[in-house]
Design a protein that fits this description.
The complex is a heterodimer of chains A (460) and B (580). Chain A is of the alpha+beta class. Chain A has 2 domains: 206 residues, 2-Layer Sandwich (Cytochrome Bc1 Complex, Chain A, domain 1), CATH 3.30.830.10; 188 residues, 2-Layer Sandwich (Cytochrome Bc1 Complex, Chain A, domain 1), CATH 3.30.830. In chain A, 41% of the residues lie in helices and 17% in strands. Chain A is built from 16 helices and 11 strands. In chain A, the strands form 2 sheets. Chain A has a 6-stranded mixed β-sheet, with helices on both faces. Chain A has a 5-stranded mixed β-sheet with strand order 7-11-8-10-9, with helices on both faces. In chain A, helix 10 crosses helix 15 and helix 12 crosses helix 16. The relative contact order of chain A is 0.18. Chain B folds into 2 domains: 205 residues, Cytochrome Bc1 Complex, Chain A, domain 1 (2-Layer Sandwich); 246 residues, Metalloenzyme, LuxS/M16 peptidase-like (Cytochrome Bc1 Complex, Chain A, domain 1). In chain B, 37% of the residues lie in helices and 15% in strands. In chain B, a hairpin with a 3-residue loop joins strand 6 and strand 7. The longest helix of chain B has 21 residues. Classes of the chains: A alpha+beta (460), B alpha+beta (580). The interface between A and B is large, with 136 and 135 residues. Strand 4 of chain A pairs antiparallel with strand 1 of chain B.
């Protein structure tokens, strides 16, 4: 049984009002200027006081969720790599030489729901950025040999994470928790699919046709630039981009009827892991998404009774991290715990489930809900401190529903979460039948020697 | 805000360079911009940053237009070059006996406070490797006389602030970034963390065990790239105060007592070793308030240790760490004396970028190992000690000034069948850059163009500006970044090549490989036996068509000598012995 903190109050107790200084401000407090091109491309300008610097972000609303075909997991990410392979007009050597000469920090990333291409650097580079970005999104050209070489880099990317047991844990968690939906695989993809990538040249072209269309794209420019000039250049450079998104249908995940469990035997000595996750709600369910954002730190954050009990007092757990799990489609809400001794896995799981049950029974600490909202607000403002961070924030929130104002809407909803909302969410979603539990322990035969023995001078 | 701690941290995938770290920045759509984490990738051991408070994120403050104004007096151990003395602005002063380096206030909403002590992991007593980091962790996370560990968390959480203790070899910095709304709440807590730590036995046990697990389970078993880097650090710095990884050794951590740590703090975290750095939108009276509060710190600690130059010690040249793995992590390097103050810095910085720019495509290593051959995910080179700082792409290094530096090459994990070919390819490219293929004028001009723009990102936030100002102060120089940017423009290809030939000694490079089958690798290295390139086959088992010139180069790479002649040049260590 977990101790009930003294501060525990009934649901009806009012939460303290949040600090006035930030409460009235929008979560995304910047003035934005939005334009829509006739072909569907959306352009957002955010002027920001960053003399001489500009950030240029391109959001494509395609991620590993868009990989429903068997054997084709990992292609959104693979395709992100191919986007650096150049066009007829600007082959990859030219692209690289140009972004290098201009001093731009250039990269891209892929996740479940999005692929984001970004350049950041001197503002004087903006006309060239527009020309080169517009060109590669319309005219990407790579041959099969280049495609096969890039497959090696993808395998290398998998290899660099392969020594980390949490890659395997994430793979098993998603594979177990989902039956139909494409969140069943990680963004990197199943290893077998990565290994087969050299044979997927034709499919990669099909992927480009389906998803790399202007109506699926949003360009965000933030920093020190002339908006009128930038708009004219963008209209000219992207005006000829044609095509409509033709997404493959994504299977709906059936409601989980029974608790699921899987175990992973890791090949070398490691800290045992316990992952406890429930199916949550997608970004479209605004109120549920906001509740998940408050609930994850409420149950699993560093000020939660569970953390204080398991990490600080009993010291059974080395670290624990909550996930609010807000994605485009309903994803997974839960917690990952690194448990020092595998003999304590059961007790740890029991403690988590027991705290969740307590919340379902209506025991909620309103003062903590208030502290979490304050934390969320200040954490957000701390992040928005430079053009790249600002552009990235807007891109990632926009990816969820496609709405540019989603970030503000979501934070407004977070501010409105009441203590009783945590209770009702817990009652409807954090059910045993909806839960997936994964444990990862060292395989028999590779068990480590005990590590956490008491040294001299330690508390007994 | 947190999302997908598990999924997000691992599922993100970048075209090149680091997957964006942490739960938020990667797959997860909630949260915000490219955050820096105190412990990127789950905790980089040498980085040795530790945090308490709202989250593990270490944030930099708002970017401002103003340039840092740096150190008036000299406190570093080296003498500053004469040319820089008149460029130093005001900014450093003593208030009530406390040394301050305050940048001009900006109009941004965030404030950065850094309490920088001269003293770090190089000061770990013999047999107590990891002591400074553990002491700093217990101070920053384990509670103060007035707040226990839980209360400390609860006090910092609503203001979304962490107190981060970053321990490097020669300095330890406790810093916090806070919204100005909450400055009054933070200041007394921050002062108490360094002035009145609780030294609670329970927290000692918890954090000691966490540090042991970090070495024995994460570093040794779950993070081969950082294992390789830390092993290289210990190899390069044998018999030097930098010679043990900052996170410590398992047996040392087990024998450390709470009293040892209190003594370590008494020796290192004292007023005579302290400089308080401030930047961002702070109120005018902040230095005075901090000075009054910090006056309670002990005046004097142990004498500041002198760092001797690292001597080349080329045996063994290869340390092979035997460990089961699907791919092999590779790091090479050598200590060198190049510093921010060296007149060769701008020229060498061009050579570094041209040979292996971090997380960009322009470097020769990246182009030739990854882009042409698909050998791995990335291939980079560094001219000062490098620790990845989360999602921040640039190689900017802050709060980590050192009197001894090193050159390193980082090859991301390579499939085992190609690992020795990849190592040879890196050695081949270094050798060619010194002989047959020096940096061309076009390559140099292009790289200068890159750095001219890219270096603007190095100090774009107030926190970064403060970091550079404190590092300049530590090294006894002024306006390093400004001088670097200014001198770059006049650097010629001849200067780049001359400086590169002067500093780069391929025969002194030491290499660490982490992976399986090391007895066989040792034989191959000693015999300089063949290690042909294996290209990835497709599903039908076909090898891709490669240009004849590349295949010819592959054969030349395969003839490159590893440079190990004697059995003692190659050492094999079982994983269990690492950092034990």
């Amino acid at each position: 049984m977990l101790a009930v903190p003294l501060a525990l109050v009934l649901v009806a107790a009012p939460a303290k009002p949040p600090p006035q200084t930030l409460a009235a401000a929008k979560a995304f407090p910047f003035k934005t200027e939005t334009h829509a091109l006739p072909n569907g491309l959306r352009v957002v300008f955010i002027p920001y006081d960053s003399p001489g610097l500009v950030a240029y972000w391109t959001l494509m609303r395609v991620g590993s969720r868009n990989e429903p075909e068997k054997g084709r997991s990992g292609y959104a990410h693979f395709f992100e790599h191919m986007m650096f392979r150049g066009t007829k007009q600007h082959p990859s050597d030219d692209y690289n030489a140009t972004v290098t000469r201009l001093g731009l920090n250039t990269n891209a990333y892929t996740s479940l729901d999005m692929t984001v291409y970004h350049l950041y650097g001197p503002a004087k580079a903006l006309p060239t950025i527009i020309e080169y970005e517009a060109d590669r999104f319309q005219n990407l050209a790579y041959d099969e040999a280049q495609f096969k070489t890039e497959a090696g880099a993808i395998l290398g990317e998998y290899a660099k994470s392969a020594s980390n047991p949490e890659l395997k844990l994430a793979e098993v968690l998603q594979d177990t928790a989902f039956e139909k939906h494409t969140y069943k695989h990680t963004t990197l993809g199943f290893l077998r699919d990565i290994q087969a990538m050299p044979s997927g040249f034709d499919y990669s072209r099909e992927f480009f046709r389906r998803y790399y269309t202007p109506d699926d794209a949003t360009v965000v420019v933030c920093g020190d630039f002339d908006a009128k000039d930038a708009l004219e250049r963008i209209q000219k450079a992207y005006g000829g981009w044609r095509g409509r998104a033709d997404p493959a249908p994504i299977p709906k995940e059936p409601r989980q009827a029974k608790s699921r469990r899987a175990t992973v035997a890791w090949k070398s000595p490691t800290i045992p892991r316990l992952a406890i996750y429930w199916h949550g709600y997608g970004a479209q369910s605004l109120k549920d998404a906001a509740t998940q954002i408050v609930l994850a730190p409420y149950l699993f954050g560093k000020t939660s009774p569970l953390y204080q009990q398991l990490v600080l007092t009993k010291q059974l757990v080395d670290t624990m991290e909550g996930d609010d799990g807000v994605q485009r489609d309903p994803s997974l809400f839960g917690v990952l715990l690194r448990v020092k001794d595998e003999r304590n896995l059961k007790a740890t799981e029991h403690a988590v489930v027991s705290d969740v049950s307590n919340l379902a029974r209506g025991r909620v600490d309103a003062s903590r809900v208030s502290a979490i909202k304050s934390n969320v607000r200040y954490e957000n403002i701390k992040q928005l401190d430079k053009p790249d961070a600002i552009a990235d924030t807007l891109a990632r929130y926009t990816a969820l529903t496609g709405e540019l104002d989603y970030v503000n809407a979501l934070y407004r909803e977070v501010d409105a979460v009441r203590p009783e909302d945590l209770v009702s969410f817990t009652k409807k979603a954090l059910l045993d039948a909806n839960r997936t539990t994964i444990t990862l322990t060292t395989a028999a035969g590779n068990k480590p020697r005990p590590v956490a023995r008491s040294g001299k001078g330690g508390a007994k | 805000m947190k999302a997908l701690a598990l999924l997000g941290a691992l599922l993100a995938a970048c075209s090149h360079g680091e997957a964006r770290p942490g739960p938020i920045t990667a797959a997860a759509p909630t949260g915000a911009g490219p955050a820096e984490k105190a412990n990127p990738d789950g905790g980089s051991p040498g980085d040795s940053a530790t945090a308490t408070g709202a989250s593990a994120k270490e944030r930099t403050a708002s970017g401002g237009a103003q340039e840092p104004r740096v150190a008036g007096d000299e406190i570093g151990r080296g003498s500053p070059p004469a040319s820089t003395s008149q460029e130093r602005g005001p900014g450093k002063e003593k208030i009530k006996g406390v040394e301050f380096l305050a940048l001009p206030p900006s109009d941004k909403p965030l404030v950065t406070i850094a309490l920088r002590f001269k003293g770090g992991a190089a000061d770990d007593p013999a047999g107590n490797a990891g002591a400074t980091l553990l002491a700093a962790r217990i101070m920053s996370e384990g509670g103060t006389k007035s707040l226990d560990a839980k209360q400390l968390q609860q006090a910092l959480f609503p203001i979304a602030t962490d107190i981060v203790a970053r321990v490097d070899k020669e300095e330890t910095t406790f810093f916090a970034i806070v919204h100005k709304d909450n400055l009054d709440k933070l200041v007394p807590i921050l002062v108490d963390v360094v002035g009145n730590p609780r030294w609670e036995a329970r927290e000692f046990v918890r954090l000691r065990d966490a540090q042991v697990l970090d070495v024995s389970r994460r570093l040794r078993q779950g993070d081969d790239e950082n294992l390789g880097k830390e092993a290289l650090g210990e190899l390069m710095y044998r018999d030097h105060p930098y010679g043990r990884t900052s996170v410590g050794h398992v047996s040392d951590l087990h024998s450390i007592t709470l009293e040892d740590l209190q003594q370590q703090a008494e020796d290192l975290f004292t007023l005579d070793r302290l400089t308080v750095g401030i930047s961002g939108g702070y109120p005018k009276d902040l230095p005075d308030r901090l000075a009054t509060a910090l006056d309670a710190l002990p005046n004097r600690g142990a004498a500041v240790a002198q760092i001797p130059p690292a001597r080349p010690n080329p045996h063994p040249r290869f340390r092979l760490v035997e460990k089961p793995a699907e791919a092999t992590a590779i790091s090479c390097g050598m200590p060198w004396a190049l510093s921010h103050k060296d007149p060769d810095w701008p020229a060498i910085s061009v050579a570094r970028s041209a040979i292996g720019e971090h997380r960009q495509f322009n470097g020769r290593l990246m182009q030739r190992l990854r882009e042409q051959r698909g050998l791995n995910y990335g291939d980079y080179a560094y001219i000062e000690h490098f620790q990845q700082q989360g999602g921040d792409a640039s190689t900017a290094q802050n709060f980590r000034a050192r009197h001894q530096q090193d050159f390193t090459i980082w090859l991301r994990p390579v499939q085992n069948e190609n690992r020795l070919f990849a190592l040879r390819a890196a050695l081949y490219e270094i050798q060619r850059s010194l002989r047959e293929e020096p940096f061309s004028p076009e390559e140099v001009e292009q790289t200068k163009g890159f750095l001219d723009g890219y270096l603007l990102l190095y100090d774009q936030t107030d926190a970064r500006k403060l970091g550079y100002a404190l590092d300049d102060d530590f090294l006894g120089m002024g306006k390093f970044l400004e001088q670097w940017r200014a001198s770059l423009r006049s650097v010629t290809a001849d200067q780049v090549n001359a400086a590169w030939r002067k500093w780069m000694k391929p025969e002194e490079l030491q290499c660490v490989l982490v992976g399986p089958g090391m007895e066989e690798a040792k034989k191959t290295i000693l015999a300089d036996a063949g290690t042909p390139m294996h290209y990835q086959k497709d599903a039908q088992g076909n090898v891709p068509q490669k240009p004849a010139a590349l295949l010819e180069t592959d054969r030349a790479v395969d003839r490159t000598s590893f440079g190990a002649k004697d059995p003692q040049d190659v050492e094999i260590l079982p994983i269990d012995k690492m950092f034990e």
